[in-house]
Every structure is written in structure tokens, then in C-alpha cells.
Amino acid sequence: MNTALTAALILGATGLSAPAFAHGDKGAHVDAFETHLDDYEQEIEQLVATVDSIASDYAGDGVASEQLGQRADALVDDWEHVDFHEALETHAISLYPPIWVALGGLEEAIHKDGAEAEVRQWQQRTEAALWQGMGALKYAAQQRDTAAADADTTTEKATPASGPETIDIIQKRLDEVLAAYREGDGQRATTLVNEAYMQRFEGVEGALIERDADLVSSLEKDFNATLPLLIERGADSKAVADRIAAMNDDLDTARELLKEAETDKSDVF
């Protein structure tokens, strides 16, 4: 099913208003985000209510595990497509990865049997991360007119290169991630993953979305949830290596798509 259509159906089912999609053209709300704080807060309240409902039903009886798993999966899609997601990614990106990690942890826990304590832990972590992100946006809004805020918004998310050579840089960075992890430095490994996403992958997202939005969504989840969760949990180095290998396969595909985009662009001119 088309990604946008899937998201639209999910949003309709959960009651979240239809947003400007995070993958695609930037929503008009982003440039004037300080006037949309109430809207973002309502989206967070809806996400939190969904998290609470899933966690409560998991702890209770009468809800099939398959249904709970589907609701947890839909929650991640909801997060990807609310306006708050895009505003946070643009104006306070340092608070963006923790939400992905928490949602990924919750989603995995829901798919397990007898993991009530783990579900509650990830429930609390998810809700805390969402509200911390909201706090960061409020702070950014308060400071927007000051010189310090201007410096923050231009340096926090540096403009990265956007050509196929960027993929080579990302893959080299992932090699460094694996090396750091094998040396026992999980903190550095996590930092390198975040840098690869924020400073490099985001620069090629726009061109890739036009050609394979599902590929972008998959890589975004790997960078922000799957791989960081493996590192945080102290997974076997083989599991980390296998995930990076899978990401590299997707990145190889991304490189070819970017080459096609450059060829098409040169043909136009």
C-alpha cells in the first residue's frame, strides 16, 4: 500500500488530524512554528493517550496480542506524520532521536509476551521524551527573536551535502560505529549514529523521498530507533554488525537512486 495512503488511514482510525507529511515538502507550519505550539501540544496529548491505552490494554485481559502489536506499529506511523515531528526535527533536533528510541523500545516490548514491566518502562520513557521535545520547542519559540536563538537554529542542524558521495561518507561513519561498539564505547557509537543521520542522511532525504519514500522511512527508523536500541541494550556485536550490513544494503540502493537523480537533473539542463 502507498505510504501516504497507509498513514492517512491510520490517522483517520486514531483520530489524529491529517498533517503535512514529514516525508515530503516541508509544512508551512514549520517556518512559523511558534504560532502552532498549541497544535503540537494537542498532538502530543493524543499520542500520549494512545500510549497509555496500549500499555493499559497490554496489562489487562481481553485484547489480542496481535491487535496490540498492530496498534503499537500504528503509533510509530502516527508519530512520523504529525506536525510536531517535523517541527522538532527542524528546530530542536537534539530531542528528536530519544523519541524514536523510546517508541522503538515500546513497539518491541508490546510484541513480547509477559513483558508488562518493560512495557511500563518504555511507556514512561516515551511520554517523557515527547514532553521534553515539546519543552524544547517552547524554549526555541521564546528565544527565536534573539541572536543566540538564531545561532542555535543555524548550527544545530548544519546543511549537509546532498549528492551520492554522501552515502560513502555515511557508510564510513557506520564502519566507525561498529568499531567503537566492538571496543566497548557504546556512547561514542551512539553519537556517531546520530551524527551520520543528522549531518549526512538528512541532506539526501529530499531527493530520495521523491524516488523511494519507503526506503527513506526504513532507514530513518534504523538510524533513530533500531540501531541505537541495539547499542543501548548491549546487544551482541554480531547483531549490531548485521543491522549495519542491512542498512548498507539500503544505502547502496540510495546511492544508485541519487545517481539517477543527478543524471535526470543534468538532462534537464
| CATH fold descriptor of the largest domain | A middle domain of Talin 1
Count of β-strands:
0
Overall tally of structural domains: 2
What is the top-level CATH class of the largest domain? Answer: Mainly Alpha
Structural class: mainly alpha
Assembly level: single chain
- Give me the strand/helix succession: HHHHHHHHHHH
Return residue spans where pLDDT drops below 50 for at least 5 consecutive residues. Answer: 1-24, 147-159
**End-to-end separation:** 34 Å
Keywords: Coiled coil, Signal
Signal peptide: 1-22
Coiled coil: 30-57
Organism: Salinisphaera orenii MK-B5
Describe the structure.
This protein has 269 residues and is mainly α. The protein folds into 2 domains: 153 residues, A middle domain of Talin 1, CATH 1.20.1420; 104 residues. The protein is built from 11 helices and no strands. The chain is globular, with a radius of gyration of 19 Å. The protein starts with a helix and ends with a helix. This is Imelysin-like domain-containing protein. Keywords: Coiled coil, Signal.
